Amino acid sequence: MTNNNKIEIMKIANITVVGIGPGSPLDITPAALEAIKECNVIVGYRYYFQFITPFLPSGIEYIDTGMKREKARAEQAFNLAEQGKSVCVISSGDAGIYGMVPLIYEMKRKRKSSVEIKVIPGISAFQKAASLLGAPIGHDFCVISLSDLMTPWNCIEKRILAAAQADFVTAVYNPKSEERYWQLYRLKEIFLQERSEETPVGYVRQAGRKEQTVTVTTLKLFDPEQVDMFTVVIIGNSQSYISENNLITPRGYYQEEEDTEVSVGQDIMIHSFRTIEKELKHPEIALDKKWALLHAIHTTADFEMEDLLKIDDNAVSQLYEKVSNGEIKTIITDVTMAAAGIRKGALQRLGVEVKCYLHDERAVTLADGKNITRTQAGIRLAVEEHPEALFVFGNAPTALMELCSLIRKKKATPVGIIAAPVGFVHVCESKHMVKPFTNIPKLIIEGRKGGSNLAATLVNAILSFNDAVLLRPGRDV
Q1: How many other CB atoms sit within 10 Å of the CB of residue 433?
Q2: Which pLDDT belongs to residue 265?
Q3: Is the pTM of this model over 0.85?
Q4: d(Cα 60, Cα 44) in Å, to the nearest integer?
Q5: What integer pLDDT is reported at residue 257 of this predicted model?
Q6: pLDDT score recorded for residue 2
Q7: Of 89, 112, 251, 369, whose CB is crowded by the most CB atoms within 10 A?
Q8: Exactly one of 282, 295, 298, 432 is catalytic; which is it?
Q9: Taking a C-beta distance cutoff of 8 angstroms, is the pair 360, 303 a contact?
């Protein structure tokens, strides 16, 4: 008789760990409700009982505990189960994600208990938050908790850095509390070192509950002070974008269609630009500066361009706007090689003409008569006919110095200047001479480096600036 009773007790000795979702009754799964209704005793943090009470029949015993008493909660569950009761341990969200499941299994092993354990998954807080933000976790993602109660901070920081470098969409649990106020600031700092400041960020407070708030912003504008312990933060990856206040991370279904629309040359250029962007020391720079910089590095394979390329604020975007609205009709180059590198398809598409006076017979005659270089003579002729053109220098410092002199004499009023002459004589001086013209948008390659290929690619960056947001260079390749 006694043995039969023991067998019966062993059969019903069980603990069911149930994820009850983030807080809304609509987010509790039918399986979770069924498991709760079939148990004798419910053990959990008292705050969570409010979410399940309306669904429970009378007669079920409740045992509630305070916050940070997970271990005591688990011990109570085992004590009750070993007495033959059917016990349900509730956990918010999914019980296996920063919930009670790991602790229950560890305690079973520690106690050498024969109690059977069953897990009922629930909708996690980051899943709920993601659904409210749009579609932020449409591609590879990770989840990181900033709580250092049981995990050393140096370990958490390594995980943050790895996630940022690996371009994971990253969900952040336990982002902030009264005592842990600085960790989220540090996470933002690390991500800004590895990601663009325009990376989309969304955060949801009290997801699924009546106090719910949803915010979409960028990494640069993200304010940790707006976050508390009831908030889930989701940081997008390099492909994520904001559309109609939704945070979206594409899976890639349309990528194949887009790729079929590009040539082999453009496809290689797109992948090259993405590689370069990942290797930049300061990827957070303004988009128009970054767009020109990516072109410069792509042309030279020289990451020193990050330090050498100096661009006036909004110069690229302003010059593109003037090209697109027809204000810029003419581009003047110092040498024919610079003119040859400017994409003909872009010029035709935008209705822009490139001129170089280097081989103009008038320039030859003028250079001989005035004892000046032919490039200087070419610039004098260009200014007479097109004083308001976009002037581009990729070879001759004397030509750039000539333009500066004509600007000072108020004979030239260029709409913009690209200063990339190369060499050893007067090169640096010519670039310094152009800097005081603060009212003229300028792109300058500092020092001795430069070249016609660099000058041309900077022009191409301006002509294609409308492709910068999607990082799709080479439309006219």
Answers
A1: 19
A2: 82
A3: no
A4: 13
A5: 53
A6: 44
A7: 89
A8: 298
A9: no
State the Cα–Cα distance between residues 203 and 186, nearest whole angstrom. 17
Indicate whether 179 and 275 sit together in one domain: no
Q: For helices 361-370 and 374-385, what crossing angle results, to 10°?
A: 120
Q: Is the torsion defined by CA of 83, 88, 92, 97 positive or negative?
A: positive
CATH number at residue 71: 3.40.1010.10
The span from the CA of 437 to the CA of 439, in Å, is: 6
Q: Is 239 helix (H, G, I), strand (E, B) or coil?
A: coil
Looking at 78, 104, 123, the residue that finishes a domain is 123
| Residue 445 three-state SS | strand
Give the residue from 163, 154, 158, 20 showing the smallest Cα distance to 97. Answer: 20
**Looking at the structure, do residues 309 and 457 belong to the same domain, yes or no?**
yes
Taking 70 as the pLDDT cut, the residues of the chain under it are 1-12, 66, 254-261
Are 158 and 115 in a shared domain? no
Tell me, yes or no, if 386 is annotated catalytic: no
* Tens of pLDDT, residues 386-401: 999 999 999 999 999 9
What sections of 303-426 are H helices per DSSP? 305-308, 315-324, 336-341, 344-350, 361-370, 374-385, 397-408
Residue-range definition of the domain harbouring residue 222: 126-248
